Amino acid sequence: MESKGRILIVDNEPDFVLALQTTLEASSYQVVAASNRNQAEAVARRQRPDLVVLGTIMPRGDAFLLHQWLKKTPWFSDVPILVINAPPEKQLICGWRREEGMQCDADLFLAKPIEPAAIVPWIEKLLDKATKKIRVLVADDHTVVRDGIRAVLTLQRDLEVVGEAVNGRDALEKTIQLLPDVVLMDIVMPVMNGLDATRQICKECQQVKVLILSQYDDEENILASTQAGALGFIPKTAVSSQLLDGIRTVSQGKRFMHATAG
């Protein structure tokens, strides 16, 4: 059965985690778990959850710090967060402070004790509400090309242009800064060409996928793009018809080549 989404549970009570994990997996969700803030950040970067269940962790205040980190990190700023606070009798020990709660930007705020089965409907509603967008960085030294691509992508509900780069060096720096899902990369650009930028991106930001756009669709450039680490190649002459499919395909870690590219 196809997974309905990946859920990250952050909580230091093993019994609660096990019960919630078992319930969610029975409902066809993939589940990953962490018991403290540092572990949660590492798991989130590696697993890219669709929703975070932020329960009780120690020391007090770390749940709020994790919440802030999620909201400020580009990859996770739009990921729904369901906070489950400590029960009333434990809130002075491991619960949220009042000032933290006032700054909380979670999508839902609950408190223990709560049955795992009661959490599942809330998760379903939050995931239905949240359309996870594919974040795209457009790298091309021609303004008219960048503007044209942005105009096409803006019309798509599941795609979002998070930045533009005017050369390969700019593309590398903005990829590290913005952490897009996909970089649309021209080959011939000043300062640093697109192939060198692709190599560096694939080395330094392995989760980011690169889709090459070029007016030169000969086999030599296609092979060079693949060797640099790009997952896809589209000639600029075919952008209007294949760009959207290419972005969606490579964002899933799959290869995409123009039909006539061989």
Q: How would you characterize the overall build of this protein?
A:
There is one protein chain. The protein has 262 residues and is α/β, with parallel strands linked by helices. The protein folds into two domains: 6-129, Rossmann fold; 134-257, Response regulator (Rossmann fold, 3-Layer(aba) Sandwich). 44% of the residues lie in helices and 20% in strands. The strands form two sheets. It has a six-stranded parallel beta sheet with strand order 7-6-8-9-10-11, sandwiched between helices. Strands 2-1-3-4-5 form a five-stranded parallel beta sheet, with helices on both faces. Helix 1 packs across helix 6 (116-129) and helix 8 runs parallel beside helix 9 (194-204). The longest helix has 14 residues, at 116-129. The chain is elongated and about 65 Å long. The relative contact order is 0.09.
Secondary-structure blueprint:
Elements: E1 6-10, H1 14-26, E2 30-34, H2 37-47, E3 51-54, H3 62-72, E4 81-85, H4 91-94, H5 98-103, E5 108-111, H6 116-129, E6 134-139, H7 143-154, E7 159-165, H8 168-178, E8 182-186, H9 194-204, E9 209-214, H10 219-228, E10 232-235, H11 239-251, E11 256-257
Parallel strand pairs: 1-2, 1-3, 3-4, 4-5, 6-7, 6-8, 8-9, 9-10, 10-11
